[in-house]
Design a protein that fits this description.
Blueprint lengths: L21 H17 L13 H34 L3 H4 L4 H28 L2 H8 L2 H5 L7 H26 L10 H23 L12 H12 L22 H9 L1 H29 L5 H7 L1 H21 L4 H19 L3 H28 L4 H15 L1 H6 L12 H37 L8 H7 L11
């Protein structure tokens, strides 16, 4: 069955002319596609003639490169202080080791505070305006279904790993500018890398696409298909049983935001997030210092970070591809966590610089594949656009307080072995593994209970609208393990 793109009441965006210009056209384009996707006669079979893989490739080509560049620069700006430190920042500013750690710590409090309102605004405002301003995990959930998400998360998050490699290379080169214009080399690191961020943010305002409904690189029918897929993802019931078509709730209501704050899975997931983000920031903020304190020069330490990050980027994409292919998230989080324990144990057990470097290498190669997994796992298990945006903001906002903790794990007085810092990282990883097991047990129990309820006709007790409002609490929704 081909989709009728001349549905009654459809307002064509190209015939809209009024004083509001582009904003009015944008509203009409969104309304037009939603009409097509939400028509009762529309089913997945309505789009059977479309090439889904071709559409996904078009989306990847138009979305991922700019997102990756934005995230690369975002992470570069967060981590370059570690490179600046070994080029003399602390000494030139007359800071003690504790004062330096506190400078790292305070950043994360504002990060956590603004994360929830930021994600809610992203849904209300155009991403091409908001993302360049804030410098991108939730955005992808507005385009891709949950079984496609981790690979795309990894494709742009691997940019964070590449940022680590670039950070070392750039710091190595920029530090040679020491004294140019009467400015220290570490100041040039901030100036030039910050300038690149501003330039790319301005460019992205013009090239970043906002929503599937307004993507001009897709046909109108393809846009309707993308919106339809997103609306009806996450449902599953017993085979060969009729199932109500339940759309994801898209309208704003404060109850969806409050539901995110009350959802047990988000708070348990935050412990998993901490078990990954603490090692992540420990690596990104202190890796150059750790390597230098093994007896290498500052220049050599900068360069020795490069192969670690490049390898981690490749592994992040490989793990994500396998996770999406198998439709599982938890194994691709638990296994990297176990590998991280091995890496930190090597760092604690040996004084040989080569063994410590290998341990840090192993940790980085595990932490970067795990991060897109934990972000994707939660987004997969939240239904309702605004609950998902609030839930992911809570996860990332509160979760990034782990960065504030990690900023104080590696104290100068503990160098060069940093046994306390490595041990604390291992403690958080152990807590994360326990939290993963709690989530798996909870999700499995709930899914089985909902299967039984569906077999007993539990779905028929609710209208499609009521099931939609329930989101991931609906009997038709299944959690991803």
């Amino acid at each position: 069955m081909a989709l009728n793109t001349e549905a009654p009441g459809l307002v064509k965006s190209d015939v809209v002319h009024d004083e509001f210009g582009g904003e009015k056209r944008l509203d009409n384009e969104v309304a037009s596609i939603e009409v097509l996707a939400a028509t009762p006669e529309t089913t997945l079979e309505s789009f059977a003639h479309l090439d889904e893989k071709k559409i996904l490739r078009k989306m990847d080509l138009h979305l991922i490169p700019m997102l990756a560049i934005l995230y690369l620069l975002s992470f570069l700006d967060r981590g370059n202080i570690g490179n600046a430190k070994i080029e003399g920042l602390q000494e030139d500013l007359g800071m003690t080791a504790d004062e330096y750690n506190w400078c790292l710590t305070v950043f994360f409090f504002t990060y956590a505070f603004f994360e929830v309102p930021s994600n809610l605004l992203l849904k209300k405002l155009r991403p091409s305006r908001w993302l360049p301003f804030i410098m991108v995990s939730y955005y992808l959930t507005m385009w891709y279904c949950r079984h496609e998400l981790q690979l795309r998360q990894a494709m742009f998050f691997s940019a964070a790993s590449i940022a680590g490699a670039f950070s070392g290379l750039l710091a190595f080169g920029i530090a040679k500018m020491d004294g140019v214009g009467g400015i220290e080399g570490w100041r040039w690191i901030f100036i030039l890398e910050g300038l690149a961020t501003v330039i790319v943010a301005v460019i992205s305002f013009f090239v970043l696409y906002d929503f599937p409904e307004t993507a001009d690189f897709l046909t109108e029918e393809e846009r309707a298909f993308i919106v339809f897929r997103l609306k009806y993802q996450g449902q599953r019931g017993p085979k060969n049983q009729r199932q109500t078509q339940v759309a994801q709730a898209e309208e704003f209501n404060w109850k969806y935001v409050w539901a995110a704050f009350k959802d047990w899975q988000i708070w348990v997931n935050i412990f998993v997030f901490w078990s990954i983000v603490c090692p992540l920031y420990g690596i990104s903020l202190f890796l150059p210092t750790i390597i230098r304190n093994l007896g290498y020069s500052s220049s050599t330490a900068q360069l020795m970070t490069v192969p670690i990050y490049i390898t981690a980027a490749v592994l992040a994409v490989v793990f994500a591809f396998l996770s999406d292919r198998l439709g599982k998230r938890s194994p691709f989080i638990i296994v990297p966590l176990l590998i991280m324990i091995v890496g930190f144990a090597m760092c604690i057990a040996s004084t040989n610089p080569r063994v410590v470097y290998a341990g840090v290498f192993i940790v980085a190669c595990a932490v970067y594949p795990a991060f897109p997994g934990v972000v994707t796992w939660l987004s997969n298990n939240l239904s309702g656009s605004y609950k998902r945006s609030a839930g992911m903001a809570l996860q990332i906002g509160v979760g990034n307080l782990g960065g504030a903790m990690a900023a104080n794990f590696y104290r100068e007085k503990d160098s060069p072995r940093y046994i306390l810092g490595h041990s604390l990282e291992m403690g958080f990883i152990g807590g994360g593994i326990i939290a993963c097991l709690i989530l798996i047990a909870g999700y499995t129990t709930i899914n089985k209970r909902r299967d039984r309820m569906m077999q007993e006709g539990g779905e028929d007790r609710y209208t499609a609208e009521e099931l939609s409002a329930k989101g991931d609490k609906a009997v038709t929704f299944r959690y991803v393990l």
